[in-house]
Amino acid sequence: MQPDKLGPILRPLFKKIKELFKELVQGEVMLGFRKGPSGKVDDIKSILWDKAFGCKVGVDNLSEDSLFLIMEKNGGIFLSAKLLVLPQSNIDALMKSGEVNESILDAQKEIFNMLVGKLNDVLMEKVQKDIHLVMNDNFIIDEKNLSFLPAEKEFVTYTASVKIVGPVNFSMGMIFSSELASLIIKHISPDDEEEEDLSDQNKAETENKAEEEPQEEDDKEEPVHKAPIKLFKIPSIRKNSSDFYMEYIMEEDFPVAQLGTSLWNAVNTMQKYGMDFIILVDGLKFIGLLTMADIRRGLSPFLEEPFREYCREQDLATKNFQVEWFLQRDITPVPYEASLEEAIGYYLEQDFPYLPVCKNRRIVGVITHTKLVNYLAALLYNDSASEEESEGGQVVTNASS
After folding, report:
1. How far is Cα 181 from Cα 332, in angstroms, rounded to an integer?
2. Considering only 86-95, 168-177, 371-380, 386-395, which range has the smallest mean pLDDT?
3. pLDDT tens-digit profile of 166-184?
4. Under CATH, which number does the domain 241-392 receive?
C-alpha cells in the first residue's frame, strides 16, 4: 500500500477548519478526517452525496476541474444560518424544511470562501510552490446533478465527519484531481516529508477517536499569564509603590463587545466612544482586543461610498459577521496590581498601543499610548522641577553663609 503523502499536509487544514466551525457556532465541534476513495467518478460515488452543496475551486495553470469542495446540505444550512446570526427558531425551521433561499446560498458561498482561504494558507506554508486558489462556481448536488465531475479524470479524495454538539452531524469532502495532488506532493517542503499512511484503517480510527474526544474544561480560575518583562528604569524618579495607581495610565471608560457581537454593531460602538479599538469579553472575562483595522478587514468595502451603489446581499451579510472571527493577535493583559515599571515592561514587550488591564481575567481598564506618555511626561517634569527647586534652595543657603 502506497504511503499517503498528501494527508499529512491536509491535517493542519482540517484542524483549522475545526477551529473555524467552533468560532462560527460558538460551541464544541468534533471533527475526524480520513483519506477517501480514489479513482474516476464511478470509484468515488460514495462521497458524492445526493443532498449537498458543492464548490468548484480554480487553480492557477491547471485545468478548471482540479479541486472541488462539498458539504452535506444539513451542515451547510446550519453553518450558513449561524453565519447570518439567525434566531434559533429560524434555524430549526430551515433545518426541518431543508429549503435554501438566496441568503443561505450567499452565506454558504462565504463559508466555502473561508475554507478556500484556509487551504491557501496551508499550501503557502507547506508547499514550496506558489499554488494560488480562487473560488469559482457554487452549486447544489442532488439526484439531478451528479455530473459536475468529468468522467475521464482521476481524483483523490479526503472526507471529514463533523459533529456539532446538539443534533447536527454532517460530512464534508475535498476532491483533488490527480494532477493537482501530484503537483502538491512534488513540491512539499522538506520538513513536511513525513510518510504517514492515513488509509490504514486502525490509524484513521485512532486519529478520529483522538479528534472526537472532547477536552475537559478546567473549572479552576486561570492564572494571569506573566509575560517576559523588560524592566524599564525611569531615570531620576523618586517614587515608592504608594505613589502609583494603575488608573493614572488606563482608560476606565472604553468600548466593549460581548462574544457574538456583529461587526456592524462593534463599529457603531467604537464610533460612539470615539476610539479605534474595542475589547472583546465573555461576560466580564477578557477574550481579546480588536482595532478598527481588524473590524474593517471583515466588512465588505461595498457597504460605504464610493462603492455603495454596487452593494449586494452578500456584502450586507458581512455586517453580521461576528467580531471574534477577526481577532488578529494574542495579547497578555497587564495585572491591575502591577507596578509602573512592570506595566511599561508589558507595553514594550508586546509593542501594541492598547493593553487591557485585568483583575483575575476581569477587564477593568485599557492602557493607551496617550495616557501612558502623558503620565510619564508629567512625572519627569515634576521630578525635574523638584530637583531644580532643591538645587536652587541649596545655592541660596550657601550664599547666605
Report:
1. 41
2. 386-395
3. 778 999 999 999 999 988 8
4. 3.10.580.10
Average pLDDT, the chain: 78
Instruction: Output b/e per residue, 361-374; b: 16+ Cβ within 10 A.
Output: bebbbbbbeebbee
Question: Is pLDDT at 198 greater than 90 in this prediction?
Answer: no
Chain centre distance of CA 134: 20
Residues 45 and 157: beta-carbon distance below 8 Å? no
How distant, in Å, are the alpha carbons of 385, 386, 390, 401 from that of 398?
A: 20, 19, 13, 5
Q: What is the secondary structure of 323-336 as a DSSP string? A: GGGG-----PPEET
Between CA 367 and CA 101 the distance in angstroms is 46
Can you read off the three cell numbers belonging to residue 69? 469542495
User: Residue 92 contacts by C-beta under 8 Å, 6 or more apart in sequence?
Assistant: none
pLDDT for position 386: 55
Among 3.10.310.30, 3.40.1550.10, 3.30.460.20, 3.30.420.40, name the CATH number for the domain at 7-212. Answer: 3.40.1550.10
Residue 231 CB partners (closer than 8 Å, separation 6+): 341, 342, 345
Give 107-151 pLDDT, tens digit per residue: 899 899 889 888 888 888 887 777 778 878 888 887 655 678 888
The residues spanned by each domain of the chain are 7-212, 241-392
